[in-house]
Design goal:
The protein is α/β, with parallel strands linked by helices and 337 residues long. The protein has helices at residues 9-18, 25-35, 49-58, 129-138, 160-171, 191-200, 214-220, 229-236, 261-271, 296-308, 333-336, and strands at 2-3, 59-60, 68-71, 77-83, 86-94, 99-102, 106-108, 123-126, 147-150, 183-187, 204-208, 247-253, 277-282, 313-315.
Length: 337
């Protein structure tokens, strides 16, 4: 049956009318789903018994609890959700001043980045907005969340229709009413979807860069062959990131591969004129590619060199590596266990 979760206000109003209920019942349904966060029709107490009976006969709420979880020594938690006959992973990252949820947008991933363990899963399907919302609403820490990053399994720009629907419900007054500044969407740089994200939402953007040179990046990230990073940067430079909306670049550091002075200077050239920051990420070696991790001293040098030359750069703290929850490590290990 069709899910109510993931429907917009206008769609819920149509559902209400089809059920023989007043149009304003659509607003009530939205409140029950996204504000009260109910998981059963019985909880919708201001909707008539007849209306609830109709809804229960024709729809499901769409909420589903995680089927397993693991907890890291650093407090990070990874949750396993079942979506049809597939499984996806979601990561909760608590910090002193924030609580971030890293959600998946696809089951597996088709981008094939050589250094990413998630890519070894292959692609097993798009998630619907309901599937993405369920991750947010159904983790035990849902009420504590301050930030959401779409950086789990999958490439959000490859599922842009459902991602935009999710973002709309997250930020709409009838939905969860989050500020778009609390949401960050990542991409390897699929330009058609990225352009739509930039035009149709105000959320932050994070680009998986990892190498500033076309040939080298194409060897690491097949998407570069279709959408060169220079084209991605040219698109981003058409938008204003000097105020509250931000663009950042994720940069996994590989020893002697992309952490050299040559790469540092090309990064400065490539990103010149764009208000942005670079997040350096430690490589979490899952044994799927022959890439050496940068040593700490190299990462610190790269951070300081870029920052001193006007490109704000930080080293991201690694979280959840012991439970395969860190960047690029989502491989449904909980399911395999």
């Amino acid at each position: 049956m069709d899910k109510l979760l993931g429907k917009t206000l206008s769609e819920l109003q149509t559902v209400a009318l089809e059920a023989g209920l007043p149009k304003y019942t659509g607003q009530q349904l939205a409140k029950w789903l996204y504000v009260q966060r109910v998981s059963t029709f019985e909880e919708m107490t201001n909707i008539s018994l007849h209306g609830r009976a109709y809804l229960q006969a024709h729809y499901i709420i769409g909420r589903q609890a995680p089927v397993a979880h693991a907890e890291s020594i650093d407090g990070t938690k990874k949750y396993l959700f079942q979506v049809g006959d597939q499984f996806i992973e979601t990561v909760y990252i608590p910090e002193e001043d924030r609580a971030t949820l890293c959600v998946s947008t696809q089951a597996g991933c088709k981008m094939g980045c050589k250094f990413c363990m998630t890519g070894t899963l292959g692609f097993h399907g798009h998630l619907t907005a309901a599937d993405i919302l369920n991750q947010v609403l159904s983790v035990p820490e849902s009420a504590q969340l301050t930030n959401i990053v779409l950086m789990g399994e999958g490439e959000p720009m490859d599922n842009i229709d459902q991602v935009l629907r999710f973002l709309d419900i997250m930020t709409a007054d009838y939905g969860l009413a989050w500020s778009p500044k609390r949401l960050t969407v990542s991409s390897v740089g699929l330009i058609p979807g990225l352009r739509r994200l930039l035009n149709e939402s105000d959320c932050h953007v994070a680009i998986s860069l990892h190498n500033p040179f076309h040939v080298e990046r194409a060897e690491m990230m097949p998407a570069e062959r279709a959408y060169a990073i220079q084209q991605v940067i040219a698109l981003l430079k058409q938008y204003d990131f000097s105020h509250q909306r931000r663009v950042s670049f994720e940069y996994i550091c590989f020893g002697g591969v992309n952490d050299t002075p040559k790469h540092a200077n090309e990064l400065l050239r490539l990103l010149r004129g764009l208000e942005c920051r670079v997040n350096l990420i430690r490589y979490h070696d899952g044994g799927q590619a022959d890439f050496p991790a940068s040593v700490e001293a190299n990462m610190e040098w790269l951070r300081d060199y870029l920052t001193q030359h006007g490109l704000t750069t930080t080293i991201r703290r690694s979280r959840g590596e012991d439970i395969l929850a860190a960047c690029g490590m989502l491989v449904n290990a909980l399911q395999k266990k």
